[in-house]
Write a structure and sequence with these properties.
about 240 residues; alpha+beta; endopeptidase fold (from Nostoc punctiforme); two-stranded antiparallel ribbon; 6 helices
């Protein structure tokens, strides 16, 4: 009898088939995860049925959801199917009644509703958005939370994204830079003193300062001019103003 030997390719194919089979079993047995949703979205979805007055029914559906209390909560929470009052808690976590916020749910034996806010937290009364009973429709009304009720919060709640304000900074005007073609200002146009005359004026200023020091010049006191100052009075001193 001839024995067939498996090649590496055969072993790889068998392994791939086993992996696919195991993944299929896991996907069938694993619970369906609900996508993320915000409280604002939950309340908006719940109010849409209230405004349209969707009639109550345990067999009828509206846009894919059963038109009873648990179907209403499943729709508001954005779940992929309609759960019942016995199974809706699988898609939520239990919280304290005092921690209820809009978008959470209040579960009673045989009934569940969306918590829309407190009317009186002290008296445990709240605004319930719900489907009630036969002959009625989705509505908002005041209910009281009895002892033994469960407060549920949907899994996967997310916070709305905050919009960051974009501040536009003022743009500085462009600075004009003179090019090589632009002529530089001359002394004739600006009235500036040539270099040689400026040096002479500076020397004359120092001479005047030395003369004042020699004559012990005092402010606001008129003194006779020294011979040095008198000799310089006839010359042209640029940039110096002297009053005696």
């Amino acid at each position: 009898m001839k024995v067939l030997r498996r090649t590496p390719l055969d072993r790889a194919l068998v392994g791939a088939v086993l992996i696919v089979a195991i993944a299929s079993v896991i996907s069938l047995t694993a619970p369906v995860q609900a996508h993320a949703i915000t409280r604002t979205k939950i309340m908006k979805r719940a109010k849409s049925w209230v405004h349209k007055k969707v009639p109550y029914s345990q067999s009828g559906h509206y846009r894919g959801y059963r038109r009873d209390c648990s179907g209403f909560v499943s729709m508001a929470w954005g779940l992929k199917k309609s759960y019942t009052t016995r199974t809706i808690s699988k898609r939520a976590k239990r919280i304290r009644v005092s921690s209820l916020r809009p978008g959470d749910a209040v579960l009673l034996p045989g009934h569940v509703s969306i918590f829309g806010g407190w009317k009186s937290k002290k008296h445990r009364t709240y605004y319930a958005l719900e489907e009630t009973t036969w002959g009625s429709h989705a509505k908002k009304r005041v209910r009281k939370i009895p002892h033994g009720a469960k407060a549920l919060r949907r899994k996967g709640l997310t916070k709305p994204r905050r919009r960051t304000a974009v501040v536009k900074r003022p743009v500085a005007p462009p600075v004009s830079v003179p090019t090589t073609d632009t002529p530089l200002p001359s002394s004739e146009t600006t009235g500036s003193v040539p270099t040689s005359e400026t040096a002479q004026g500076a020397a004359a200023s120092r001479s005047i300062a030395e003369a004042l020091a020699l004559t012990s010049y005092t402010p606001h006191v008129r003194t006779p001019m020294s011979p040095l100052i008198a000799s310089l009075s006839g010359s042209t001193v640029v940039g110096v103003r002297f009053v005696v």
